[in-house]
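input
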Amino acid sequence: MEVDDPKQIILQVGSTLKKLRKEKQLSLEELSELTGVSKLTLGNIERGETNPTVGMLWKISKGISLPFMALFSSENPVNLYRAGEGLRFASDQKNWVVEPIFKNASHDIEMYRAYLQPNSSYHPEVHHMNTTEIATVMTGTITIHVNEEIYTLNQYDSISFRADGSHSYSNHTNSEVVLHITLKYGI
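output
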């Protein structure tokens, strides 16, 4: 199955968030306190009235202790995700875009295609405790900061690190970098 219309996915995320919030018996105010996302914004997301940023969704998933992709329910046994089509999330600066690829049924592994624009950096939210991030460079060269260490990766190089600490991605070239990212949750 191909990914649906992005507007439908935004409505689906809102519906899923509302369902998860009610299952956890949380008010919008309580969810706001847990996530650091305003009550107004959470209400707009639940009603499908806003397209949340990737940072906002990370805050929400971390605040309710669920993997990021738990906000996107899929009942289909076969899912096809084509590059550049379907669901995409951009950072606030629009220089980092991720496309969810797959999640496994137990919600502990997720895969993404990520794009970092030329001469820019992305500093993601600290992920859930005990989360491992694996990044493979598909095109380009990237510098990855993990805590106080700096690593430069070229095409097809891979790195694995604990993502519940400080980390960032920097593209110091004039070409877009494409990454394949896998998250393994320890929650």
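quick obs: The chain has a mean pLDDT of 86.
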